[in-house]
Design goal:
149 residues, mainly alpha
Length: 149
């Protein structure tokens, strides 16, 4: 199995960081630890600030579910990178690319639609961190006959 520099390690680290951030978001979105993100996102919807307790409860629920989803995606990506991606199984690369593209297009498009430019920028930084290792290892994947190879 070939490796180009530390690209596999980089990709694994980004996947683990995504999972950790998702856990953080799910567990601490209603705490002062998450206020830095809330200060960036809230003004797109509540320019005067969030004062309604029902809105705060909804934020806690939606960020909890969103965080759990991010944590799961990061964990899945980490397992794929650690095993079949490092073995240069083409399906693993293609699955990562498809998942990353789907996430980026939908999440970033919806964020832009609602004017949450912080999330657009945040997603773009994550996309670059994920795309670089995939791009630099792309040619190491050989065409294989089945999905299991």
């Amino acid at each position: 199995m070939k490796r180009v520099g530390g690209w596999d390690t980089w990709l694994l680290a980004v996947a683990v960081a995504m999972s950790a951030f998702g856990v953080f978001m799910a567990l601490f979105s209603r705490s002062p630890a998450f206020d830095a993100f809330n200060r960036q996102i809230d003004p797109a919807f509540w320019p005067e600030g969030v004062t309604d307790p029902a809105v705060r409860d909804f934020q806690g629920m939606i960020y909890g579910v969103w965080g759990a989803t991010v944590a799961g995606l990061g964990a899945l990506a980490a397992f794929v990178v650690f095993g079949p991606y490092r073995s240069r199984q083409r399906w693993a690369r293609n699955a990562l690319v498809a998942a990353i593209a789907l996430w980026f297009i939908l999440d970033t498009g919806i964020s832009a639609r609602y004017g949450v430019w912080f999330n657009v920028a945040f997603n773009s930084a994550i996309l670059i961190a994920l795309a670089l290792p995939v791009a630099f290892t792309w040619r190491e994947f050989r065409k294989r006959g089945t999905l299991n190879e």
